[in-house]
Design goal:
- About 30% of the residues lie in helices and about 25% in strands.
- The strands form 5 sheets. The protein has a 7-stranded mixed beta sheet, with helices on both faces. It has a 5-stranded parallel beta sheet with strand order 11-2-1-15-21, with helices on one face. Strands 5, 6, 9 and 10 form a 4-stranded antiparallel beta sheet that branches.
- The two termini are about 30 Å apart.
- Among the domains are: about 150 residues, 3-Layer(bba) Sandwich (FAD/NAD(P)-binding domain); about 90 residues, Orthogonal Bundle (Guanine Nucleotide Dissociation Inhibitor, domain 1).
- It contains 12 helices and 21 strands.
- Strand 7 and strand 8 form a beta hairpin.
- The chain is an alpha+beta fold and about 450 residues long.
- InterPro entries: Amino_oxidase, FAD/NAD-bd_sf, Zeta_carotene_desat/Oxidored.
- This is FAD-dependent oxidoreductase.
- GO terms for molecular function: oxidoreductase activity.
Length: about 450
Amino acid sequence: MTKQLTIVGGGITGLASAYIAARNGYKVRVLEASGSFGGLLNTFPIGGNRLEHYYHHFFTHDAELNWLIKELGIGNKLVYKKTTMGVYRDGKIFSFNSPVDLLKFSPLSLFDKARFAATSLFLGKLARWEDYENISCMDWLYRYAGQNTTNSLWKPLLDIKFGPYANDVPLAWLIGRLRQRMNSRNRGEEKLGYLQGSLETLLTALLEKLKALSVELINHSMVTRLHVEEGKLIGLSTPKETYSGGEYLFTIPTNYIKKLVQGVDDTLFQRLDKIEYFGAVCVILDLKKPLSQNYWLNIADSGYPFGGIIEHTNFISSELYNNKHIAYLSRYYSREEQIADQSNEEIIATMLPYLKKIYKTFNPDSITNIHVFRTKTAATVCDLNFSQRVSSYKTSIQHLWLANMVHIYPDERSVNNAIRVSAEACRVMGMDTSFIPEGNSLSGKIGRYQ
């Protein structure tokens, strides 16, 4: 008898899970609440091409992503390029790509630079994240990297990314973050990957492959009710249809799942209710000329309304966008922060004046268009011992499984890590995942055992 799987959520985690399950002979359907599949992979037209709502790039060590790209026959679309990074501190832009750049970073003394290099190397290459869940980044960095190093680099970056939660972020998260970056470097040089044609290339190929595997893709299908009898999920309802039978894998954010299990399994509800999310906004500038020569600029001065400036066309040629120059102004935020309630126009009005502070020759007239994209569930709020909050893939309700952004911890959100979470969830469900390579991602491991 053919096994059946219903997946709730048509983002990359849901779609990758559908592919793995179909490869295992399952009859699969995917229910997506919105009108389109892809979630945070979605793109929009610009300059005769397409671009992600939220900036994306790949690392050279993204084994799972490279596997999926080859499976879909689009390996020829993947390119890797050298990128450049800068840090804005004390009103100046500093290159931050090599040991020589670190030596030239004037806000730090020679002793501070040595401590920064040593602690970064330790965290990115040697530390086990499991040993550092009960200590905050701030506490550890002040102790080992030093006060000046922490105040000059780490604290402003953590403040702008995590807002009121900055002091509670576990060092385990920073270990995951640094490991991602360092493993994509070779002798200080970083190469990052991108798909020609944007993530639309991946999404289109994946959807076509799923259709070829007879996966049923159903959009405009928000789940409104779970049908649970004697502790077993036997079906679920959308406004248009009721589905029953088989297993159910929910890949949507926990703040949506918890509403469905409230009153059905209060213990599971209480566990999911403890998970909070950061929102994110990307203001995308369509420019006549570039802002700088850097791909990525981290803002390490306090008081700025964005944490990073990502100049996409310093990574991917502007010729592919009819010579438009494209820059993202990126900001994470908690629901308590003022920006959460601001309109797009208010966010733009707040951010643009700060560009003149960073780039003295910047002229607002060089902007030909502005696009704003926002999400309420960009990343989970992780505090000390966060792994204890992460639910297992297998829930207390029989036939109900969970796999979503929570399971990416302690790593950072990425397409690759979402695929790793999909693979782990499918493996725990009893599927064969031996054909999926496992890279050095830290994602997906916590939900295996609880």
